[in-house]
Design brief:
Elements lengths: L1 H13 L14 E5 L2 E4 H11 L7 H23 L6 H15 L6 H14 L2 E11 L6 H19 L4 H8 L5 H4 L2 E5 L6 H9 L9 E3 L2 E12 L3 E10 L5 H19 L4 H8 L3 H4 L15 H9 L10 E3 L2 E11 L4 H14 L3 H15 L3 E2 L5 H4 L4 H4 L14 E5 L2 E4 H11 L8 H23 L1 H4 L1 H30 L1 H10 L5 E2 L2 E9 L2 H13 L4 H8 L7 E8 L5 H5 L5 E2 L3 E3 L2 E11 L2 E2 L6 H23 L2 E3 L1 H5 L3
Antiparallel strand pairs: 1-2, 1-20, 3-4, 3-6, 5-6, 7-9, 8-9, 10-11, 11-12, 13-19, 14-15, 14-18, 16-18, 17-18
Length: 649
């Protein structure tokens, strides 16, 4: 995360700084660092891109220039140290290049159609069941035909009247069918592989499709229902955890959720009961409210119960999921956004979805046309004679094709030879069952051609798209800056235990505890419970666990306890009492009674290095950064033309 943040900072600082404005006339040099120059227009574009004020504050301008200089000096130092040639850096930058190149390697026209199609499909949810007959993508023709015919015979049983669920349980090779009878529930666009999704959306309600091929095999799909998209739901829940519970804990969970449900039915406030009893620590503090979600995003039991609630404020019965028990309250229901509102999300989802292959295939065809693709189809036949069962095992040696050196295809004047393909096979082969070597060769050749076409186009992106070239330069600088800063500042501060200890010793007074209370907070469901708690606290030396066990013998909702050391601001109830040893008066909190037992008052004292490690490390890193910048400014001479700087307005 730190690396991404720093790279984004570099993109902000350096955006447009590498657009090569030096060729423009009357563009004076603002900054010189060694033999590198930055013109007024370069810096001005960067500055104004990130400072939108109508008038320029000279201090802001000066501070920004200092930041820019520091960035340039750090990158220069990284290059001087040869960090841009390290294999790890080259590999990482290549990975970023692959990601940044993706939008350029798809057919934008086809992608636009896919975007609109996905959005149109998102207007509704479909409910389907399926039966799967497995068949790998590169299966032998005879095995593919066998799987297809098997699926056809199964479909005939359903068409003749056998219940789909019964047939699914008996025949489907999807293991979940034994329990769900093939029922996949409701889903919307981009939640299934594209071909499966298309078949489901194109089918009519009640229709049983012909066998549909996906990468998993053949599917028989029955569309049982469709509905208008349920939109986006915001819900709150009260949760009692019970994941892999022991029987006795499961019984307690059922008792607790039932008691909470009864309180709600008798007029109890959902938010107060949630704060008091919910065991979902992430949501209980804000009344149980969860992030908004759409169909297919939550476990089915929770989702079905949430979407079944009709009106804002409706509350469900207790619902069991794999995580425990929930009572759900509908907060809001939001319809799907407009196309423009959804466009960013759609693009991101399509990039990860199997339909993205449609755009890539179209792009490959365009590349073939633009770069005059020519191939000799007969050259692939030479490989049939040099592959054997070792290819099926993923152990084929390219040396077996050493005699093959013909050109298989060309893009412009670049030749792709049989030797290139042999190397590709060797590097990409995997174990494949029930597949002939010849079928593997045919499949891998198609992959080789497609990847070569896309790779050829990617290699030319810097020439075709100046903005891509600039972006790659910025990412290069960002990675270098991160790696060097990590070495000089971040990791150094963590690893330099002696230096960290010395810094702490010299600045110990900056890291102190204020006065604190050590004790326990008792959350009682009623005054009667509070009275019993007081009796136990004053007449016995029971542990808090024992007190909870006694008080909660007939209800899990009676008492909860929180122990610890509390500073001002840590706990609202501790803040309201006088800080003296002993048991506080009752504090009314809604329908609960709070008791605070102050066992000790801890005076102000220095924090140990372990207590303050996060703050000490951050401050030590800031010192290392400051000293490093000072040394860089001394090592690399730079000059700012103040007259040119004054012209920026």
């Amino acid at each position: 995360m730190k690396k991404i943040t720093l790279i984004l900072l570099v993109l902000i600082i350096s955006a447009l700084s590498l657009t090569q404005c030096k060729g423009q006339s009357k563009d004076p040099v603002l900054l010189t660092i060694g033999n590198e120059t930055v013109t007024k227009s370069e810096f001005e574009k960067v500055f104004k891109k990130n400072n939108k004020a109508a008038t320029i504050d000279q201090k802001v301008l000066s501070d920004y220039l200092d930041l820019f200089i520091n960035y340039k000096l750090k990158v220069k130092e990284a290059v001087e140290m040869g960090m841009d040639t390290a294999s790890s850096f080259v590999s990482e930058l290549a990975g970023y290049r692959k990601q940044l190149a993706q939008p350029y390697l798809v057919d934008k026209e086809v992608t636009d159609k896919l975007l609109h199609e996905a959005y149109d499909r998102m207007q509704k949810d479909v409910h389907v069941s399926h039966i799967l007959i497995k068949c790998p993508p590169d299966a032998l023709p005879k095995d593919t035909l066998e799987a297809y015919n098997k699926a056809l015979k199964i479909r005939e049983r359903i068409v003749k009247g056998e219940p789909f669920g019964k047939v699914a349980k008996e025949t489907s090779e999807d293991p979940s069918a034994k329990d769900n009878l093939g029922d996949l529930g409701f889903f919307s666009a981009m939640q299934m592989v594209y071909t499966f999704e298309s078949a489901a959306f194109n089918a009519k309600v009640g229709e049983v499709t012909m066998p549909i091929r996906t990468k998993y095999g053949y599917h028989i799909i029955k569309k049982t229902d469709e509905r208008k998209d349920a939109g986006e739901v915001t819900a709150a829940h009260i949760m009692v955890k019970c994941k892999d519970c022991k029987p006795e804990d499961s019984a307690k969970a059922v008792q607790k959720i039932t008691e909470i449900s009864e309180k709600l039915k008798n007029g109890g406030n959902f938010e107060e009961l949630c704060k008091q009893y919910s065991e979902d620590g992430g949501s209980s503090k804000n009344g149980g409210v969860l992030p908004a979600f759409k169909s297919g995003r939550m476990v089915p039991e929770f989702e079905n119960a949430a979407f079944a609630l009709k009106n804002k404020g409706d509350i469900s019965q207790p619902i069991r999921t794999s995580y425990g028990w929930h009572i759900i309250k509908l907060i809001n229901r939001k319809p799907i956004g407009t196309y423009d509102e959804m466009l960013g999300e759609l693009k991101a989802n399509i990039a990860k979805d199997s339909r993205s292959e449609v755009g890539k295939t179209s792009m490959v065809n365009k590349i073939k046309k633009d770069y005059k693709f020519k191939d000799d189809s007969k050259t692939i036949e030479d490989f049939y004679n040099v592959v054997d069962s070792t290819l099926v095992q993923g152990k084929w040696d390219a040396i077996k094709a050493a005699s093959l050196n013909k050109t298989m295809f060309t893009l412009l004047d670049k030749k792709y030879t049989q030797a290139d393909f042999a190397k590709y096979i060797s590097e990409h082969q995997t174990t494949r069952k029930n597949t002939s070597p010849q079928a593997i060769i045919n499949s891998m050749y198609d992959q080789f051609v497609n990847e070569s076409c896309l790779g050829f186009e990617e290699s030319r992106l810097d020439l075709k798209y100046p903005e891509f070239k600039d972006l790659m330069t910025e990412y290069k600088d960002g990675i270098l800056l991160f790696n060097l800063t990590d070495k000089k500042v971040w990791s150094k501060a963590v690893k330099d235990t002696v230096g960290l200890q010395d810094y702490y010793n010299a600045h110990k007074s900056n890291y102190t505890w204020g006065q604190r209370v050590e004790g326990a907070i008792y959350n009682c469901s009623s005054e009667e419970v509070a009275t019993k708690v007081r009796e136990l606290l004053s007449t016995t030396k029971l542990t808090n666990d024992s007190i909870v066990s006694i008080i909660n013998s007939n209800s899990q909702l009676n008492l909860s306890v929180k122990e610890g050391k509390f500073s001002k601001g840590d706990n609202q109830y501790v803040d309201t009492i006088k800080w003296v040893k002993g048991i506080s008066n009752n504090i009314v909190a809604g329908k609960s009674i709070i008791i605070v037992n102050v066992k000790d008052i801890l005076p102000p004292q220095p924090k140990t290095l372990e207590d303050a490690r996060g703050s000490v490390t951050a401050d030590y890193q800031a010192l290392l950064e400051k000293d490093w910048i000072k040394s860089l400014r001394s090592k690399y001479p730079f000059k700012v033309n103040q007259e040119v700087l004054a012209q920026i307005k």
